[in-house]
Amino acid sequence: MTVEKPLSLLEGLAPIVGLRIRESRTEKGMSQKDLVGERFSKSYISSIERGKITPSLKALEYIAKRLSVSVSYLLTGLHPSQQNSHQTMITVLDEEESPARWDLLITEARVLREQHRFEQARSLLITKVRVRQLSVEQLKQLHFTLAQLYIDLGNTTDALPELETARDLADKTSDFEMLARVRQLTGSTYILQGKSVLAIEQLRGALQAIETGLIKEFHFKLAVYSNLGILHHQLGDEREAIAMYREALRVAEDSSSPDKLASLYWNLSATYRESGNLAQARLYATKSLALYESFSDLRMLTQLRSGFGVIMMEAKQFEEAEQQFDLALKLANEQNNPEALVAANMNLADLYLEQGDTRKARHYSDAMQCHLDAADPMTRGQAYSSRGSFLAAMGDNDNAVYNFEQAVQLIEKTPAKELLSKIYFRYARTLSAKGEPVRAAELFERAYRQLGRPGLVAER
After folding, report:
1. Which of the given ranges, 5-9, 29-33, 248-252, has the highest pLDDT on average?
2. Could you tell me which of 325, 251, 242, 198 has the C-alpha nearest to residue 3?
């Protein structure tokens, strides 16, 4: 949900970084084509070497790896052997308190973040930076980077004040690009907090920066479009969700990013499934699976197989659904992933219950319960609903009601309206069978309200 910003702090270093890249390449007898491999164009590396453009952090890491040097060397000219083993690329400059040092320090933190060394990056900024000596531009970058790191560490509460400070500084300096980036990241933070309306408000502001041409960067556009797609889908606005996903897909396809593209295909598949268009859902799910299998992202592939199985189950193609769920369960066991284990066992229990095979349904429903405590609230809520449906089918309505109550309490705290509507429907049917028509009618009404439209809704 975060975006990679251009390395504005490195713009002044572009010529010297390009020179070090060219020197390292020629020392190793490599051509520009040898250096870029299949990753970049020859013209791109040529522009970098001539100092015309600044590479992104990911590009810099890739180039350093191809040259068998460190990112630290490309930025500072110092090899690791020239530094104390406990020093980072900046600590060699401890005696020098200049704007260049603070630029490099913030840049190092961003490199560490790209390497997923989040706590190390946060600690570096907190302990090494002398805030009073920073320029306004550096302060904006500092607070924005700290916000990114807090989000990476799962601390959205501390991220928001950093974003507010960055926004105030950007507003005072009429830095409209930074304002747009703050809005995008704030929207992403609100998504993590389950505050969909606030998230849309922020992301709509970021969208204006795209529509006016202020920001054309791939990662920014992809984050804004895909997050808006997720939000509109959660709020039941499938038409707008599909429109946003299509824009995100166009951006991803133009930029040849297979991991991002696979994720977008899957989100679009889920949106079509919720709108009842199973043919399109299957098409995009198949595309997503093919991409994920190509670079072996096992965790996501497990999720995708489970989701693809759900699509097949809703289309009454039970044999293919069973195959996908079995593969998902196998992958989940290989990874020892509790959430994936809950999802795979839950889906198999639902599948066999749908087919009337209560023996197998019980087996997988019981297996699902074994991993429930380790799952996230959304997954637990779905699992409780599944368990409630199984118990209701077995005639154990009292325990079914308990499980549905647990499911409702968990899912009501999320923006997943479609899922909550399904749980209300299942719960209502159980209450009706239990002889409580008034409460059942109330839950049916809640289900309709969640969807924002009248009439019955198909439910698996």
Report:
1. 29-33
2. 251
Query: Is the Cβ–Cβ distance between 341 and 332 less than 8 Å?
Result: yes
C-alpha 436/C-alpha 17 separation (Å) is: 73
d(CA 288, CA 266) in angstroms, rounded, equals 6
Residue with tokens 């749908």, as numbered in its chain: 354
Q: Which of 420, 391, 396 is closest to 407 using CA atoms?
A: 420
Q: How far apart are the first and last CA of the chain?
A: 31
Residue 457 and residue 460: Cα distance in Å, rounded?
10
Residues in the chain: 460
Measured in whole angstroms, how far is the alpha carbon of residue 160 from the centre of its chain? 18
| HSE (side-chain half, CA atoms, 13 Å) at 51 | 9
Burial of 86 (0-12, 13-18, 19+ CB in 10 A): exposed
**Torsion (CA) 241, 223, 419, 394 in degrees, nearest 10:** 130
What CA dihedral angle connects 15, 20, 22 and 23, to 10 degrees?
140
50 touches 17 (CB < 8 A): no
Would you say residue 166 has pLDDT above 90?
yes
pLDDT (0 to 100) of residue 88: 42
Domains annotated on the chain, with CATH: 1-134 (1.10.260.40), 391-460 (1.25.40)
What are the angstrom distances between the C-alpha of 101 and each of 95, 111, 298, 424?
Answer: 10, 15, 41, 58
Question: Which pair of structure tokens corresponds to residue 151?
Answer: 């989000």
Please state the pTM of the whole predicted model: 0.48
Answer yes or no: is pLDDT of 143 > 70.
yes
3-class DSSP state for residue 56? coil
* pLDDT tens figures, 185-231: 999 999 888 888 899 999 999 999 999 998 887 778 888 998 898 88
Residue 108 burial (CB < 10 Å; 0-12/13-18/19+)?
Answer: buried
- What ranges in 216-337 are assigned the alpha helix state H? 218-234, 238-255, 258-274, 278-295, 298-314, 318-335
Query: How is residue 265 written in tokens?
Result: 């295909």
Rounded distance, CA 225 to CA 245, Å?
Answer: 6
Residue 4 DSSP label:
P
DSSP string, 347-380: HHHHHHHHTT-HHHHHHHHHHHHHTGGGS-HHHH
- 426 touches 389 (CB < 8 A): yes
CA neighbor of 74 nearest in space, from 32, 36, 107: 107
Structure tokens at 143: 């607070």
CB neighbours of residue 112 within 10 Å: 23
DSSP state of 458: -
Note whether 223 and 2 are within 8 A (CB): yes
Neighbours of 172 (CB within 10 A): 10
Of the candidates 94, 96, 106, the residue with the CA atom closest to the CA atom of residue 137: 106
